[in-house]
Amino acid sequence: MRRDWRTRGHAPRLANRKWRAARDASDMLILVVGPPGAGKDTLLEGARQQLAGDLRFRFVRRVIDDPRDKRIETHEPLDPVAFRARQLAGAFALVWRGPGGMYAIPTDIAIDIAQGRAVVANVARTLVAEAAARFPVRGIEITAPPETIARRLTAMGRSDAVDAARRHARPIPMPPGIAHDIVLNDGTVAHGVRLLVAALIRAAEAALPG
Length: 210
Known about the structure:
This protein is an alpha/beta fold. The protein has helices at about 10-25, 40-50, 80-90, 110-115, 130, 145-155, 160-170, 190-205; strands spanning about 30-35, 55-60, 65, 75, 90-100, 100-105, 120, 135-145, 180-185. Residues about 1-25 have low confidence and may be disordered.
């Protein structure tokens, strides 16, 4: 059976257009923020494992200027001298001071974003406005009730757990114009990971047409 020349190749072209639209909709930097004790590292690691086969996402490794750091997240530890050298060489897209030292996101995130991927980064809330001035950005805030945060911080050995939980109970609003989602991490790890994965997929698909 002969195919009409007018429709030949139309379906593949349409599929390609749809793929490009889905790809281009994902090109953004998804900034994950939240107070200490909210469980960001744990949920991000769980989400990274669940979405390992989804090429829309890249979970960026932060660079931290403490080679002894043994947190849950997969990160690149550097001594302060090496960190500063990389910073002066222009290797970092975003740099900020956090608990215990300096943190950075590498410049190669710009390549992934330009190629249509959603780059997921764990950052300080104070960095959101700067990042939004340079990249297409959406935010996800991971939070928990103050008593839950206090309990987790105590388990982490924080002597100021209760005071810290109360301090972080006063939310700092996102900068105007930054679309964001909230993940309430007050249950099991598995439940929190499911909520975060759903929020990440919503963010990646937010710009899809129709």
